[in-house]
Hints:
single chain; alpha+beta; globular
Amino acid sequence: MSQRNWQIQPQEREGDYFFDGKILMTSEVANTLTPEEISAIIVRVKMNVIAMDGLDYLQVFKSDDGLKIYVIDQLSKSMLEGDDYTEEQKEEYHYFTILFSHEY
Length: 104
């Protein structure tokens, strides 16, 4: 399995999503990407979170062979710190998902 070159795309808006919950991914992503590709995508998102002190909930990556990946965070920092969710809901929904754009 060859490794692709993934480029993060400009985000549409600023946000206070930190992508610091559990990591979920679709089986298609897990079966198509190498562990190194998955790791590189996660590291890039987390580095951008630090650099920008939070991101938009949707991060988009495109590969050199035309594939597109979405990384979607469920809860923002303000949602986690607010009172709109119970502690159980905050724990349950504190994750981000990695999926192909066509799976959305």
